[in-house]
């Protein structure tokens, strides 16, 4: 089986690395000749809207998936006319737009932070009256890792934020004083079977995911079930196949939906070593109509992103239970270039080395 992946970043790379033991082969489409998945599979270099590149990419594939959600929906529709494509294009369309995804989840009865579409300054004024301050103004599209959003603390800041974000296509959200951020990764197979990983606790810095703890400590059975119930509604409504990631704000025992990603996700990288079956393998199993693998955690895991730094490899690997994933990307400030998972049987065993690991993950080494 030859699988086509739209996008050639680290998610595509890790999908391929999980798929080789299953006897699969991979082709990527990416506008950059440097795309790091090209180191582990065939890379077609071309824009997502270039018909010639799309046709070369599609030639001889058995099915198509994607590894980042800002693939133009037109490209997905073009391919969908020729090949099976999973997850469904509608999921991509919802996830590309912060307003649509929140309205979609709200329509399924899933709680969200208060939100308002903003196309004019008047909309912003009305929205702020409803949300109160502080509030977050975000672009509906294109933002990721905390980009394209501005915190409005005082009314006088609103107009500047509006223009700084382009003055249209915006969403205003009430600021949620959450206890923590958690994510749920779910997988739905072609026959409709569904499995869930345990909730993960995510810690961000500057809007970028820095650390995941999995399973999230202190999650009640009821909270896990609530997250699964919310995810199941989305999976059913979209007739979904593959991995779906949902991010929530936890406030007490409540979960407010923040974002969805219709793909494998950074919050699931820990599953490579920390779960019986990784998110990458389960995504492929789902696409191929194969039985889904167990999502049971193996002990406790902490996943630390490497952001703009190359750590000392020997020092990292000297920590028992540490696993390095280097993506083969050029190191640049603010860029995710790898991650490390520290896996142990218990949190007690992990906590001490985690602070050491976090220090190593900050320490740049000349490259
Ligand atoms: P986003 O790209 O929309 O997920 O936002 C990036 C990060 O900003 C989130 O992971 C949160 O840490 C923070 N954030 C986003 N929306 C809100 C909100 N409504 N209230 C509080 N924090 C938020």
From TrEMBL:
Pfam families named in the record: ATP-grasp, PurK_C, RS_preATP-grasp-like
Keywords: ATP-binding, Ligase, Nucleotide-binding, Purine biosynthesis
Record flagged with keyword Amino-acid biosynthesis: no
GO cellular component: cytosol
Binding, ATP: 98, 138, 173-176, 181, 204, 258-259
Pathway the protein acts in: Purine metabolism; IMP biosynthesis via de novo pathway; 5-amino-1-(5-phospho-D-ribosyl)imidazole-4-carboxylate from 5-amino-1-(5-phospho-D-ribosyl)imidazole (N5-CAIR route): step 1/2
Alphabetical GO biological process terms: 'de novo' IMP biosynthetic process
Reactions catalysed: 5-amino-1-(5-phospho-beta-D-ribosyl)imidazole + hydrogencarbonate + ATP = 5-carboxyamino-1-(5-phospho-D-ribosyl)imidazole + ADP + phosphate + 2 H(+)
EC number: 6.3.4.18
GO-annotated molecular function: 5-(carboxyamino)imidazole ribonucleotide synthase activity; ATP binding; metal ion binding; phosphoribosylaminoimidazole carboxylase activity
Domain ATP-grasp: 102-288
SUPFAM superfamilies for this protein: Glutathione synthetase ATP-binding domain-like, PreATP-grasp domain, Rudiment single hybrid motif
Summary of the function given for this chain in its UniProt record: Catalyzes the ATP-dependent conversion of 5-aminoimidazole ribonucleotide (AIR) and HCO(3)- to N5-carboxyaminoimidazole ribonucleotide (N5-CAIR). Catalyzes the ATP-dependent conversion of 5-aminoimidazole ribonucleotide (AIR) and HCO(3)(-) to N5-carboxyaminoimidazole ribonucleotide (N5-CAIR).
Family designation: Belongs to the PurK/PurT family.
Oligomer status and interactors: Homodimer.
Entry protein name: N5-carboxyaminoimidazole ribonucleotide synthase
Species for this entry: Thermus scotoductus
Gene name of the encoded protein: purK
